[in-house]
Amino acid sequence: MKYKTNSEIRWHKLDNTANVFPVISNKTYSSVFRVSVRLKNEINGELLQEALVNTLPLFRSFGVKLKRGVFWHYFETNKKQPKVEREQEYPCAFIDPNSNNQFLFKVTYFAKRINLEVFHVITDGTGALKFLKALTYNYIKLAYKEILSEILLKMPVVDVVSDVEDSYHKNYRKHSYPRYKTKRAYKLKGDMLPVFTMGVIHGIVNMDLLLALCKKKNVSLTQYIAALLIWCIYKEYMNEQANKKPVQVNVPVNLRHFFSSTTEMNFFSYINVGITSTKSEYTFDEMLDSVSGQFEKQLTKENLSQTISSNVSTEKNIFVRFSPLVLKQLGVKIAYVSSTKANTVVLSNLGKIEVCDGFKEYIDGFEALIGVSKSEPIKCTICSFDNRIIFSFTSILRYPYLQRAFFRHLSDEGLEVRLESNGVYYENM
Amino acid sequence: MKGWRSDWKATVFIMKTCKRCRLSIGDETDICPLCRTVLTDMGGENPDTTYPEIEVNSHKYNIIKRLFLFVSILSAVVSTITNYMTYNGVMWSAITISAIIYFWVIIFYSIKRNRNITSHILVQVICVPILAVVMDNSVGYIGWSVNNVIPEIMILANVAVLVLVFVNRMYWHTYVLNQIVIAICGLIPGILLLCGVITAWIPAVIATATSFLVLVVMIVFGDKTIKSELKRRFHF
């Protein structure tokens, strides 16, 4: 009998990007992000726990613990059960792989919101959203057992079960790739919030009105917002002066559409768009033109494929493969520090989130938050659901100058903005 | 329970607005979080709280840690100065300092949760020989550290892991990597003996033999689970 249980240990390797996260993460830079769903009624913790227990077996990528090998980290099946908790920490706090029953994610709830906090090593935003949606469906099924129709109660909560393919390796093509040089970007500086404190500001706007605004300028939403972030930094932080260092917006890109993958592990890359301020009278439209041009140039399958190949070929390098983990960690740390120098802010658009029809009436909206660090002190996410868009800013800077300029611009454009915060800015200003 | 707000427009009839930012604020507050302007009340019900109040309580633990750190540094400094002023050929303060460092390493390692029990043994296998050699050298090298302490700690560690494996046969695979490392460490006394560093041969031979035996046991009795564990640990 004992042999049977032991031989059942399943394991899988980390994907190409995930290898970075166990090395660079600590209490001050957690590599944790949060996706949340707002429901229309108060959350019941016990039902949520039950829903979580029902959901986890469908996701092999989530039911794991992180182990150290001699050459690489790896995931091993975690046989314990994760615990749902009432929210009691700042968002995106570090998840110690040795605590939390060794799970690399946390499910918490507060009032009408369910939060899924994920250590980036197991998955990216798309994978996390898939898990959150399945969890939400399972929760709604339990909470509204009596009123839901038979069809809804029997409806599967995921369409693909436990796809843990490393799509980076799957789509690796051996071709020559130019080594991209990282240029030092302009950095946001200023007084900090108290240590381990995270400021959160959400702004909710009407989607149709904002999309109409983008359409008028003939750009996409992400392009518009990326340009707006640069514009706000130029106005608020650079005081409309010339500066040698460019303002760089780092935009994570979901690669699943480009390479038709359904993996639940990480499968994303970045593009970097930026503007070097050479004069003191830029207009917003000028910036918008330049940014949307850069988007179109960088957001091609060709370009993304090159980035993948470059990253995977590093992992496949024979010297890298056989150097012990301790040595790799040192290398990754050095490479990571130099790569963050290239970003001013991070902007992640999770897109328009679709849910199954029957469940839609119980859901109010989705939002996402990304953990920040000293070198990237402000990060912004966009989540669209139904007819509204939620912009969420996480920041460790004391004064929300960027956020203020950002939302004032939107209201100047005639949009109604509703603001919500986690209260940090009332106490700590 | 309040009624369901299925229509977005319904949530937007806002209670408070900031006249500078021209935004509506959905928090329970009187000032704008962006610019601290006093808000204009537009009436309507109070919004729900959306975030909990956070208590940060990392202070208590830190005071104890700081106290220990202070005492450690104080005793290191005092013993060094005393040693220097009353120097008679014995560097006994090195013992104090290395013992303090040993203490900190062990404490820090022990309080980390979910550590494999054999890792604790491995840490001792690494730290105790260093401590012993420093002590031996600082009171004038006699050789008791390499002749006795190192081989004996290796024997002890190997036997301890064997006992653990025997008691917890189900979890042998979780110990196996550390067991290999400890067994290989156990071969060191044999090498030192060949190099002539060790002069008392009995403990060194026993230590090397024990380690060798442990490796043989692993090869002979290791089953599929051990093999697959090693495959995971050594994947490249």
Q: Which structural traits does this protein have?
A:
heterodimer, A: 429 residues, alpha+beta, Chloramphenicol Acetyltransferase, 2 domains, seven-stranded mixed sheet, 16 helices, 15 strands, 35% helix, 22% strand, disordered N terminus, B: 236 residues, mainly alpha, 3% strand
Report on this structure.
- The complex is a heterodimer of chains A (about 425) and B (about 240).
- Chain A is of the alpha+beta class and about 425 residues long.
- Chain A has 2 domains: about 10-170, Chloramphenicol Acetyltransferase, CATH 3.30.559.10; about 185-425, Nonribosomal peptide synthetase, condensation domain (Chloramphenicol Acetyltransferase), CATH 3.30.559.30.
- Chain A has 16 helices and 15 strands.
- In chain A, strand 13 and strand 14 form a beta hairpin.
- In chain A, helix 3 (about 45-55) crosses helix 4 (about 125-145).
- The radius of gyration of chain A is 22 Å and the shape is globular.
- Chain A starts with a helix and ends with a helix.
- Chain B is flat, with a radius of gyration of 31 Å.
- Chain B has helices at about 10, 60-85, 95-110, 115-140, 145-165, 170-185, 190-195, 200-220, 225-235; strands spanning about 15-20, 25, 40.
- Chain B is mainly alpha-helical and about 240 residues long.
- In chain B, helix 3 runs antiparallel to helix 4, helix 4 packs parallel to helix 6 (about 170-185) and helix 5 runs antiparallel to helix 6 (about 170-185).
- Mean pLDDT of chain B is about 85; it is low at about 1-15.
- In chain B, about 65% of the residues lie in helices and about 5% in strands.
- Chain B contains 9 helices and 3 strands, in the order αβββαααααααα.
- Chain B has 2 domains: about 10-40, no CATH class; about 60-235, no CATH class.
- Chain B has a 3-stranded antiparallel beta sheet with strand order 2-1-3, with no helix packed on it.
- At the A-B interface, helix 1, strand 8, helix 15 and strand 15 of A face helix 1, strand 2 and helix 9 of B.
- Strand 15 of chain A pairs parallel with strand 2 of chain B.
